[in-house]
Design a protein that fits this description.
about 500 residues; alpha/beta; Rossmann fold; 2 domains; nine-stranded mixed beta sheet; 14 helices; globular; binds NADPH dihydro-nicotinamide-adenine-dinucleotide phosphate; binds the ligand O=C1O[C@H](COP(=O)(O)O)[C@@H](O)[C@H](O)[C@H]1O; NADP binding; G6P_DH_AS
């Protein structure tokens, strides 16, 4: 491994950040995809930035038959290969050799089955009296049983001088009943402030910066409300299909996979009231209030679709029903568009349009705030019949930028208006290097800051809001429309917004 440019934007983000307390991070699912592709690179980035103390240790647990050296070797080989073929999750170029080795020395491995009580006795011995975080990097069927095993073994008992925390991955439940059941089972063995329900969208710098943009500047807040906003659109469009996750996706679908978690987190960031402080409680209280004001969906406010064969970047791609692990008669949705209402004073009457889907024309995650037209149209003739709407777009992925679009006078004797766009690229102002997105979340968890993690009440409310749509899908009362891979999505999505609020096109329509 060679020297590389270290983690610039992470360092920027954590400027002034303290070193982490001594801690053992136990990763269940040490041989899995999440661990090697995202978790270990994030830990490396934290180590690289000097944020991890010498007393930090990682214990990986999995059923793969290997020892400490084998696990380290597998991670090293994976990271090297990923770095050289450009798919490295957390690095640009190869990791720094000395730092990588420093980290590897802190990694050890236990081969075991999650159902084996002996595994937890062994872990107890290894961890001793110190701080520990248990990361469930495993399928959701293991979340409650793992927590229960940890509880039974006394591994979740905190002391004056030690913390014990669990990080729970997604999906958090399949519906309201299962999310509630999971919360209840977790809360039997750990207190709410020991449970860190992760949503990787909240690890994205551009998502965290929404709060900064809204609440650190005086110019936005006065117009961030119903009197000035016409509609808000949230898009998470992907070009990829279901990749190797056909079997998982068949049981999830686009709504469960993206909406009650990621898209609602974006909605909270853009629509919640200003918190009184940046404490976890204050921020999460505001998010919960927003979720409580979110009106449960009506079936007519939901459009679902499934992709058929088409073309992405000039390459033919199969339809969803031809993907591995997918039934040829599947009625699982790969696209969903929603019209939501927030019943509070700030947002009463403002529609929130959300859409997400796979195999669309473009990869784009963004929030756009569409402002109302000027109250008196002085320029009606000059602007032809167009009523100009100013749009502020928070670009989250793959571009990291903020754009505003508005009308200006075209040069020349005629009073003719033209649409212009101004753009702030984060990279132009802040030294930038892609990071994995789990760094901040891991750092915060080790520091005991739950601001960016989801609380039980908000998760349950999210499932309540989407429940009528899920029921409509199950009873086939919401038609499943098809759309060609590489397109804008199903036509029904346009009916949802009407021409008055039309979606920002994913690619320029020809
Ligand atoms: N991968 C990703 O990009 C992302 C994943 N997630 C979430 O992270 C979690 C983990 O995902 P991912 O890493 O992809 O899953 P994987 O299936 O790749 O990893 C899970 C690991 O746990 C092992 N395992 C399964 N059962 C047992 C058992 N009884 N005892 C010991 N080890 C066992 C598996 O072994 P074996 O292979 O033999 O079954 C595998 O090595 C999931 O909840 C997922 O939803 C979230 C965001 C992104
Ligand atoms: O959690 C998930 O998110 C990804 C999209 O995340 P991004 O960070 O790549 O935008 C999605 O592809 C996946 O289906 C879903 O499970």
């Amino acid at each position: 491994m060679s020297d590389s440019e270290p983690g610039g934007d992470l360092r920027q983000a954590k400027a002034g950040a303290s070193s982490l307390p001594p801690c053992t991070l136990v990763v269940f699912g040490a041989g899995g995809d999440l661990t090697k592709r995202l978790l270990v690179p994030s830990i490396y980035n934290l180590a690289h930035d000097g944020l991890i103390s010498d007393d930090f240790a990682v214990i990986g647990v999995d059923r793969i038959d290997q020892d400490d050296a084998g696990w380290r070797q597998n991670l090293t080989a994976f990271t090297q290969a990923a770095a050289s073929d450009g798919t490295a999750g957390g690095h640009v170029g190869q990791p720094d050799e000395a730092r990588w080795q420093w980290l590897m020395q802190r990694l050890s491995y236990i081969k075991g089955d999650f159902a084996d009580e002996g595994l937890f006795a062994h872990l107890k011995e290894r961890i001793g009296q110190g701080n520990a975080i248990f990361y469930f990097a495993v399928g959701d069927r293991f979340f409650a049983p793992l927590a229960e095993q940890l509880g039974k073994a006394g591994l979740l008992t905190e002391g004056e001088a030690r913390f014990r925390r669990v990080v729970v991955e997604k999906p958090f439940g399949h519906d309201l009943a299962t999310a509630r059941d999971l919360n209840q089972r977790l809360l039997k063995v750990a207190s709410e402030d020991q449970i860190y329900r992760i949503d990787h969208f909240l690890g994205k710098e551009t998502v965290q910066s929404i709060m900064a943009v809204r609440f650190a500047n005086g110019m936005f807040e006065p117009i961030w409300r119903r009197e000035f906003v016409d509609c808000i659109q949230i898009t998470a469009a992907e070009k990829v299909g279901v990749e190797r996750r056909g079997e998982f996706y068949e049981h999830a679908g686009a709504l469960r996979d993206m909406v009650p978690n990621h898209l609602f987190q974006l909605l909270c960031m853009v629509a919640m009231e200003p918190p009184s402080s940046l404490s976890a409680q204050a921020v999460r209280d505001e998010k919960s209030k927003l979720m409580a004001a979110l009106r449960p969906l009506s079936r007519e406010d939901v459009v679902r679709g499934q992709y058929t064969a088409g073309s992405i970047d000039g390459q033919g791609v199969p339809g969803y029903r031809q993907e591995p692990g997918v039934s040829p008669e599947s009625d699982t949705e790969t696209y969903v568009a929603l019209r939501l209402a927030v019943d509070n004073w700030r947002w009463g009457g403002v529609p929130f349009f959300l859409r997400t889907g796979k195999r669309l024309a473009e990869r784009r995650t963004e929030i756009s705030i569409h402002f109302q037209a000027a109250p008196h149209q002085l320029f009606r003739d000059a602007a032809s019949e167009r009523l100009a709407r100013n749009v502020l777009t928070l670009k989250i992925d793959p571009e990291h930028a903020i754009e505003t679009s508005f009308d200006a006078k075209e040069p020349g004797p005629a009073m003719r208006l033209g649409r212009v766009t101004t753009r702030m690229n984060y990279a132009d102002f802040f030294p930038h290097r892609a990071n994995v997105g789990y760094e901040t979340l891991l750092y915060d968890c080790m520091m005991g800051d739950a601001t960016l993690f989801q609380r039980a009440d908000a998760i349950e409310r999210a499932w309540t809001v989407v429940a009528p749509a899920l029921e409509g899908f199950a009873k086939d009362e919401i038609p499943l429309e098809s759309y060609a891979a590489g397109s804008q999505g199903p036509a029904g999505a346009d009916r949802l917004t009407g021409s008055e609020h039309a979606w920002a096109p994913l690619q320029k329509r020809s």
